[in-house]
Amino acid sequence: MLTVKTLSRPWVGEAERLVVEKLAPDFYRATASFGFMERPDIPHVLSVARDKGCGLPRDNVTYYVGGDSIVPREDGQGHPKWETAVFAALARNSSHVGDVLRLPNDGLVEIGRQVAI
Asked: 69 and 30 in one domain?
C-alpha cells in the first residue's frame, strides 16, 4: 500500500522521500512525501521501493485512485443550480489524478463517488 503526501514546503530531499515498512510477508506500507512544487512520479517511487527490498512486480501493478462527481443536493438546500454547474464544470476540467501522479492508464482503476453540494 502506498500513501502519497504533499507537504507544506516546496521540496523534499530524496533521503526523506520514501519510508517503507514491512507489515507481513509480501505486504508493505510505503509513504512517499513530495513538496508542493514537485510533480510526483509514482512509478519511479515504486522502483525506489523495490531497491529498498520491497518485492513488487515490475509490470503487474494496479493503481486505485478516487474521483468525485459534483451533483446538486436533492433536498434543494444546496447551492444555487448555476453555482453547482460552474463548480462541476471546473471539477471536470481539472487535471486527472492519474496524469498528476504519472500513472500508466493500463493499470489504473478509478473509484468514484457523487458529492452533493
From this structure: no
